[in-house]
Every structure is written in structure tokens, then in C-alpha cells.
Design goal:
133 residues; alpha+beta; globular
């Protein structure tokens, strides 16, 4: 009996933590590290341009955060986007990066030097008990 209960529990755990099937909504957690002193420039670019351009390219803005503890509070932006699927995400990023508006914004915001030194991206699917699905 214990073995059966354990097997069922493991099956349920595997299901709840399984990645989304292709075609299901996925979340992208992105972390940007900036050059020293450039976090305000990055935040301005997102506030004034990038968030709107994401929406233009079917990327849904979920939230944006800056760590509260140093040293990352000085150079890190973390945000989450939602995509209809991994395929949609791939196409959205391709279209975004080729968008003349984005190219102009990026060039203008980096007139005094590069802003971002590192970008990390993780795709995640919500568990079955997550409030956001």
C-alpha cells in the first residue's frame, strides 16, 4: 500500500512540475545585468519604450523587479513575460529584434556606451497549484 501511495504521489508531482506542452502558455523569466551605473538607463528604456514594444510583438508584461539587497540592487533587472507558446516566444523575439523602432531606441539609449552586460532567460510553466496559470 505504501509503495502504491508513493507511486501515485510521484506521478502527481511529476505532472505538476512538468513543462508546458508546446502550444501552452509559458512564462519567460529574464535577468539583465548592467554595466556599472547603467541600471537607471536600462529602467528608463524599459519604462519609456521596451514594455510597449514587447506588447506590440505579442509578449505580455507580467512584472518587473530590482533586487533590494546589494550588490545586485545596483545592476540587476528581473522581469517576467508571458507567451502563448515557446514557438510564439521565438517568433516574438525575432520580430522584436528586427523592429526598426527597437533598433532606434537601443541605439539612442546606448549613445554613451553599452548598458547590458549579461542576459539570462529561463522558460517556466506554472505548476497545477500556482495562482497564475
Amino acid at each position: 500500500m505504501v509503495a502504491l501511495v508513493t507511486a501515485v504521489a510521484m506521478t502527481n508531482l511529476t505532472r505538476s512540475a512538468a513543462p508546458a506542452n508546446e502550444g501552452e502558455r509559458v512564462f519567460e523569466i529574464r535577468t539583465y545585468t548592467t554595466e556599472p551605473g547603467k541600471l537607471p538607463d536600462l529602467l528608463k528604456r524599459f519604462r519609456d519604450h521596451t514594455c510597449q514594444l514587447f506588447e506590440k510583438h505579442a509578449m505580455i508584461n507580467i512584472g518587473y523587479w530590482v533586487p533590494t539587497d546589494g550588490p545586485r540592487s545596483q545592476n540587476t533587472l528581473i522581469y517576467i513575460l508571458a507567451h502563448k507558446s515557446r514557438d510564439t516566444a521565438k517568433q516574438s523575439w525575432k520580430d522584436f529584434q528586427a523592429d526598426p523602432d527597437w533598433i532606434n531606441v537601443k541605439e539612442a539609449s546606448e549613445a554613451n556606451g553599452k548598458i547590458v552586460t549579461k542576459v539570462e532567460s529561463v522558460f517556466a510553466a506554472p505548476t497545477d497549484f500556482s495562482p497564475i496559470r
